[in-house]
């Protein structure tokens, strides 16, 4: 969720990931001609592989470019999540300077390794507004994506494990099923988080709800993808990979970076990948290929393979297989603006963990002994989704934000118990922040060259419309009201960023552009309805190739997207099983 444009939290935590365990296959013995090759070992890829390989007559090979993640303590322990950026477990992509951010650049990290983004994120599980999914059903012609039906796919991927708590988490148990991913609520005294939630309620006039049951607006303590018995991260390799490991018709291969999809006419016929640790190249010839590499790497791979905007491909001397101008377009993300405050010494923060040896030792001992304490919960374990009054958009010649269905939030509020700046006083800090939940203006992705080793060129276009700018400016002003609320103001010693002297709209806007970062929720670049067919996820005009991942989501859910990707891939798998390859 954080950008290395600001303090490297790897250095902040002073934590080095442990040596990898390797219970899965290295990319040297893949079935050469399987029924399916799935490119990308994130949530979508694992769900697809597990579901499709349930049929013992169907052979499946899952390819992941990054390393195995089994046994990596920094991944397993929720509290170590901030140490995972700028590591071998992320694609550390730098976006182009964004004129909307006064030329600032953003790091847009993506998961790299088994589990994808679910291995490195902050474990939040949220579904948000039902009307988003109803829109997808209309776009795709797939009635199964309507919330009324799609919620069954959400339930099929998760179950909720109840544990003794000293607070009411407001969990609607009917929203959960018996799927393999385990969800729990934070098992600690919420402390400051409870006070922050009260301030949100006071200022934003919102109730405490379960944002997984079809409620689109409100306040929630996080429902996290964490195992209740030992407070470790639960994610795709555990929930779905171990089932694959017991099937002779399924293989899951890491260190297998796909460089190109080969075509014979309009049919995809081969997948070529390289082991980045040895440079050994392998080509597979499956009956069908499913790309699940994410919103940045899926369009990149398609374009490298000759599928995308013809003029752009020709500029890199890539032979054109299919001229599909929309590939790489429609890039959306959740971008946030933060404030920073020095806080009193009784508040637990990451600064205390790094600067106070006894606090660190106590936290580590508590976690090892009882699977409890600050390391057993992710950073910023609560959030709020709120609307903006229509009059905020008066004078803006656009109707996008005011016409959003009533269940959709305009804003996401959250906080971090750490600094998000590059330079900051050596004191204990928290950073409340706010993001636009339904951005209007898209960015886009292009190729830098025809070399697969080059990162994609990413044009973010954050806050890229007058409505998006009005949204984040209003949200930032709401932050000022929240931090002035008496429920939390007693622990705030001083405002470090942007500073109490920053009050005019122009000065606030400058603070926003220089104090913004991303949730790392990119999507939409191979969109359902424009690039891929509804109900089949086949790339239009081509055969033997589908795309099922966040890149195909046509627009943003109103909160964290991980839960949606799991359910979406499960839904797609049920339909693909019934279709000819």
TrEMBL record:
Domain (Glucose-methanol-choline oxidoreductase N-terminal): residue spans on this chain: 294-308
Organism of derivation: Periconia digitata
Name of the protein: Glucose-methanol-choline oxidoreductase N-terminal domain-containing protein
UniProt similarity note: Belongs to the GMC oxidoreductase family.
Binding site for FAD: 258
Classification via PROSITE patterns: GMC_OXRED_2
Stored InterPro entries: FAD/NAD-bd_sf (IPR036188), GMC_OxRdtase (IPR012132), GMC_OxRdtase_N (IPR000172), GMC_OxRtase_C (IPR007867)
Cofactor: FAD
Keyword Flavoprotein included in the entry's annotation: yes
Keywords of this entry: FAD, Flavoprotein, Signal
Molecular function GO labels: flavin adenine dinucleotide binding; oxidoreductase activity, acting on CH-OH group of donors
Signal peptide, first to last residue: 1-21
Active site: 521 (proton donor), 560 (proton acceptor)
Pfam families (alphabetical): GMC_oxred_C, GMC_oxred_N
Domain of life assignment: Eukaryota
SUPFAM superfamilies in alphabetical order: FAD-linked reductases, C-terminal domain, FAD/NAD(P)-binding domain
């Amino acid at each position: 969720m954080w950008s290395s444009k600001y303090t490297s939290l790897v250095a902040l935590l002073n934590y080095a990931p442990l040596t990898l365990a390797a219970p899965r296959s290295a990319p040297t013995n893949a079935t050469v001609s399987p029924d399916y090759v799935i490119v990308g070992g994130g949530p979508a890829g694992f769900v697809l592989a597990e579901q499709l390989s349930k049929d013992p007559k169907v052979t499946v090979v899952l390819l992941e470019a990054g390393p195995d993640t089994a046994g990596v303590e920094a991944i397993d322990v929720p509290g170590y999540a901030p140490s995972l950026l700028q590591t071998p477990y992320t694609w550390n992509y730098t976006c182009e300077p964004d004129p909307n951010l006064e030329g600032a650049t953003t790091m847009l990290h993506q998961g790299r390794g088994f589990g994808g983004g679910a291995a490195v994120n902050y474990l939040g599980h949220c579904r948000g507004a039902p009307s988003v999914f109803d829109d997808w059903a209309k776009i795709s012609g797939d009635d199964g994506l309507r919330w009324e039906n799609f919620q069954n796919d959400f339930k099929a991927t998760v179950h909720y494990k109840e544990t003794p708590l000293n607070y009411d988490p407001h969990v609607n148990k009917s929203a959960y099923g018996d799927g393999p991913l385990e969800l729990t609520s934070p098992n600690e005294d919420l402390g400051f988080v409870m006070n922050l939630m009260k301030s949100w309620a006071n200022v934003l006039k919102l109730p405490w709800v379960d944002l997984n049951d079809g409620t689109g607006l409100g306040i929630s303590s996080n429902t996290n993808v964490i195992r209740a018995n030992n407070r470790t991260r639960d994610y795709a390799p555990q929930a779905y990979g171990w089932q694959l490991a017991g099937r002779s018709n399924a293989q899951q291969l890491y260190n297998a970076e796909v460089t190109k999809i080969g075509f014979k006419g309009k049919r995809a016929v081969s997948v070529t990948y390289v082991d980045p640790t040895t440079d050994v190249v392998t080509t597979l010839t499956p009956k069908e290929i499913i790309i699940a590499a994410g919103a940045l790497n899926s369009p990149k791979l398609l374009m490298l393979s000759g599928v995308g905007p013809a003029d752009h491909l020709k500029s890199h001397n890539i032979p054109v297989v299919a001229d599909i101008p929309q590939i790489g377009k429609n890039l959306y993300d959740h971008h946030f603006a933060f404030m920073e405050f020095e806080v009193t010494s009784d508040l637990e923060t990451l600064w205390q963990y790094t600067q106070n040896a006894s606090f660190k030792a106590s936290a580590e001992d508590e976690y090892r002994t009882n699977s409890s304490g600050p390391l057993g919960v992710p950073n910023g374990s609560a959030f709020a989704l709120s609307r903006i009054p229509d009059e905020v958009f008066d004078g803006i010649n656009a109707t996008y934000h005011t016409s959003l269905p009533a269940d959709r939030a305009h804003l996401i509020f959250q906080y971090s118990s750490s600094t998000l700046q590059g330079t900051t006083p050596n004191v204990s800090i928290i950073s409340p922040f706010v993001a636009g939940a339904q951005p209007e203006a898209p960015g886009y992705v292009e190729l830098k060259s025809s070399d697969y080793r080059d990162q994609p060129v990413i044009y973010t276009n954050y806050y890229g419309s007058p409505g998006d700018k009005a949204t984040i400016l209003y949200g930032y002003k709401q932050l000022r009201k929240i931090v002035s609320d008496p429920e939390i103001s007693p622990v705030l010693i001083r405002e470090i960023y942007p500073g109490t002297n920053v009050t005019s709209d122009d000065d606030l806007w400058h603070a926003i552009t220089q104090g913004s970062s991303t949730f790392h929720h990119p999507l939409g670049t191979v969109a359902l309805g424009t690039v891929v067919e509804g109900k089949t996820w086949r790339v239009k005009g081509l055969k033997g190739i589908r795309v099922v991942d966040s890149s195909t989501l046509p627009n943003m859910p109103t909160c964290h997207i991980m839960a949606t990707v799991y359910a979406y891939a499960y839904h797609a798998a049920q339909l693909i099983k019934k279709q000819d390859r």
